[in-house]
Amino acid sequence: MKFSTVDKDQDALSGNCAMTNSQGGFWYNGCAYANPTGLYLWGKDDGNIYIGVYWYYWKGSYKSLKSISMKIRRVK
């Protein structure tokens, strides 16, 4: 899976997840289940939920997370 951004669509869907739903870059396979590079929406779960910082399968909700951290390690 390649990293998709607003100006470089590399996700598996025909549309650009980074631009249309999430407005932030990430390793998208498809849209709508995670957006760690989104905006903090002050806990709201209404309107355009896809622009918020969320990880649906972790919290079971689209409510915005206050923060998220990503740790990367070398794979042998």
Automatic annotation (TrEMBL):
Keywords: Coiled coil, Disulfide bond, Secreted, Signal. One of its GO terms (biological process) is blood coagulation. Residues 1-76 form the Fibrinogen C-terminal domain. It is found in: Secreted. Pfam families: Fibrinogen_C (PF00147). One of its GO terms (cellular component) is extracellular region. InterPro entries: FIB_ANG-like, Fibrinogen_a/b/g_C_dom. Its main location: secreted. This is Fibrinogen-like protein 1. It comes from Cyprinus carpio. The gene is LOC122141703.
